[in-house]
Amino acid sequence: MSNKLPQKQIIAMGGGGWGMEPDNPLLDRYIYGLSDKKEPKICFLPTASGDSEQYIARFYQHFVPKPTQLSHLSLFEPPTADLETLILSQDIIYVGGGNTKNLIALWKEWQLDNILREAWHKGIILCGVSAGSICWFDRGVSDSIPGTRISLKCLGFLPYSNCPHYNWDAYKTGYHTLLSEGLIDSGYAADDGAALHFIADRLTNIVSSHPEAKAYHLEKKNGEIVETVLDPKYLGQ
Q1: How far apart are CA 219 and CA 213, in angstroms?
Q2: Within-domain flag for 42
């Protein structure tokens, strides 16, 4: 029997994947390939979208890598009272985009935050896009309140801040402003199409679904925002 401890893995996508790039499966294939299972079980959590039926349908239609066993968890129509058993039976948890503030509130109400932490410690791969990216960090740059970019307290699995969609001016400007005002600590940003792969709490790989997508490390030093470009590995040819 192996005494090797399971790896705690999180893949945080700034944007992309089947939900934004249904014709470009490179990020989805990367995530799928991290599992050592022949037919990994992948559960979609669409909480941030209000469990949108259209979003759920797109997951089943567009998640390209196969063979897989696909399922989803709606907190508005839960399939079981035993969410712990449901989540801990998965190989990959995929969290969709939407309103992160609502996602955090609902997860805490259902104690899903604690279940997901247990899943992470057990080696179940956690991943997501946009809201499904920032939720794993200490704080995230969020548009959960219309017309603003706020510093939102998240789950804190990863001890950094996070900003998705960094190629959008509103997110980039918002992150810089929050850092300048001391409302958020240093962390990582990712363009649409870029993904940050953490093992435990350490960034170990950066990948992208198109060549121009970048990732970044941002911090405040001597009153100035220092932005370091992190070049991903392009997953295409």
Answers
A1: 20
A2: yes
Amino acid identity of residue 90, one-letter, is: Q
Q: How many Cβ atoms from other residues are within 10 Å of residue 12's Cβ?
A: 30
When pLDDT is averaged across residues 98-119 and rounded to a whole number, the result is 97
Where residue 177 sits, what CATH number does that domain have? Answer: 3.40.50.880
pLDDT tens, 165-206? 999 999 999 999 999 999 999 999 999 999 999 999 999 999
Q: Clarify whether 186 is annotated catalytic.
A: no
Q: Give 42-62 pLDDT, tens digit per residue.
A: 999 999 999 999 999 999 999
Residue 66 pLDDT exceeds 90: no
Residue 187 counted as domain residue: yes
* 202-208 vs 194-199, strand pairing mode: antiparallel
Among candidate residues 35, 130, 142, 144, the one labeled active-site is 130
Asked whether residue 2 is domain-assigned, the answer is no
Please indicate whether residue 217 is annotated as part of the active site: no
pLDDT reported for residue 146: 81
**Which of 49, 133, 165, 209 is flagged as catalytic?**
165
The residues, any chain, with a CB within 8 Å of residue 131's CB and separated by 6 or more, are: 48, 95, 96, 97, 98, 99, 100, 103, 142
